Amino acid sequence: MRIIVLGSGGREHSIIWKLSLDKRVKEIISFGENYGISNLSKMISIDQSNLNKVVQKIISLKPDLVIVGPEEPLSNGIINILSQNNIKSFGPTKEAARIESSKVFSKKLMIENSIPTAFAEFFEDFNKAKKYCLTKGYENIVIKADGLAAGKGVFLPNSEKEMIKILDDLLIKNKLGKSGRSILIEDRIFGKEVSVFCFTDGTNYSKPIAICDYKRVFENELGPNTGGMGCYTPPEFWSEKLEKNILEKIIEPTINAMKEKKSTFKGMLYTGLMITDQGPKVIEYNCRFGDPECELIMPMFKGNILDTFIQVANSNLKESSVEWKNQKGVCVVICSEGYPEKYKKEIEISGIDRLEENIICFHSGTKIKNKKIVSNGGRVLVLANIDDSIKNCRDNIYSEIKKISFEKSFYRKDIALRALEND
Ligand code: AMP
Ligand code: GLY
């Protein structure tokens, strides 16, 4: 089989790594630049932001299956175009991807279908939004831009002044462009956060995997939000009862509601939840694998994943095709100094070849320059480990991570620390 994987970060490296373990996969092709991926697939240099170019290239390569990693091509309709060209693909259509690309769409979906979520009002007018926020109080609200904002569209103001500045930036100065012209003002809710990942073909869905991630750049939840600094599975508070409740009250109604809206969702449904005193509530949906969550999903997946991708694409997902290892997993992201703001690139990396075999090293942003491995992004490497306890995973990663060195790199040292209590 010839498979194309779109995207060139750590998430896609992990998908390609998993596929490469399957003998039936004869050829994997990907686009862009990533040293880790280039060891497992043929990489074609192409501007991935140019949807037309990407589609033309894919069509010319006649793949048996295309797997789309990032949200942008999904929300721009790549699956629709591939399907018009009779190319089998894994991922939601443009209409279904609205579950992530429009927070107004997804909030309305939840309200109309009684899916538990935080109360919200919608605004486009600055004065009306300001009046509403002042009545509510800055500490009780979350401001969300409607559209995609690369993880930068959700604001939890720390003061009244900051709250008004956020509204001004979005609705008057249009700092997020089209994405922020329409906003949601949501009640702030409290509890334990967890992300739940389910494969779905639009009707059937798999057993989920639950993962907790760390969004803030520094330990003790300090510093700005990032794409994710690490994650672990399962959460210390996870139980069969909670899983059943989430599947019945949230996942299944979501999949059914999307189907009823003629926006059948096929692919990986990623639901961000807050487990509140009143039960689980949806914070957001994403229409794809998370990054770095995917770097745990792939190693935790039992057996070959190819059948699952094909079954989802063919709308005949069998529950038995998805089983998760009865183990625990931790992954830690190594970043360049300055991330998530400005950072340097092309810094030489050493030590990858000295890692123990049980550590899986996924590359988020690396390339080769003058025959040396160098950094090529803010998030550079992700070390993942699967073992019988969170303690072992942490010990394995944190003892090996010291072997990796590049100038001024950093990583969080507290990933999964809180899960040790119930290990
Ligand atoms: P998102 O980009 O939607 O994942 O949101 C970023 C973060 O904002 C989430 O991980 C939560 O920690 C927080 N958040 C989003 N919505 C709410 C809410 N309604 N109440 C409290 N925290 C929230
Ligand atoms: N790690 C969060 C995300 O992929 O959206």
How would you explain this protein's 3D organization?
The chain is 30% helix and 25% strand. The chain is of the alpha+beta class. The model has no long low-confidence stretch (mean pLDDT 95). It folds into 4 domains: 2-93, Rossmann fold (3-Layer(aba) Sandwich); 119-187, ATP-grasp fold, A domain (Dna Ligase, domain 1, 2-Layer Sandwich); 190-326, D-amino Acid Aminotransferase, Chain A, domain 1, CATH 3.30.470; 328-423, Glycinamide Ribonucleotide Synthetase, Chain A, domain 4 (Alpha-Beta Complex). It contains 13 helices and 21 strands. Helix 1 (10-20) runs parallel beside helix 11, helix 6 crosses helix 7 (103-112) and helix 8 packs antiparallel against helix 9. An 8-stranded antiparallel beta sheet has the order 16-15-10-11-14-17-21-18, with helices on both faces. The structure holds adenosine monophosphate and glycine. Glycine binds at residues 213, 227-228, 286, 290-291, 293.
How would a textbook summarize the main sheet? 8 strands, antiparallel
CATH fold descriptor of the largest domain: D-amino Acid Aminotransferase, Chain A, domain 1
Give me the CATH superfamily of the largest domain.
ATP-grasp fold, B domain
Residues in helices, as a percent range: 25-40%
Low-confidence spans: pLDDT under 50, at least 5 residues? none
Count helical runs.
Answer: 13
* Backbone CA Rg: 21 Å
Distance between the termini: 41 Å
The level 1 CATH classification of the largest domain is: Alpha Beta
Present as ligands are:
adenosine monophosphate, glycine
- Please indicate the count of domains: 4
Structural class: alpha+beta
Overall geometry:
globular
- Order of strands in the sheet with most strands: 16-15-10-11-14-17-21-18
Report the sheet-strand fraction.
25-35%
Chain oligomer state: single chain
Shape-level CATH architecture of the largest domain: 2-Layer Sandwich
Counting DSSP E segments of at least 2 residues, the number of strands comes to 21
Q: Residue-averaged pLDDT, rounded?
A: 95
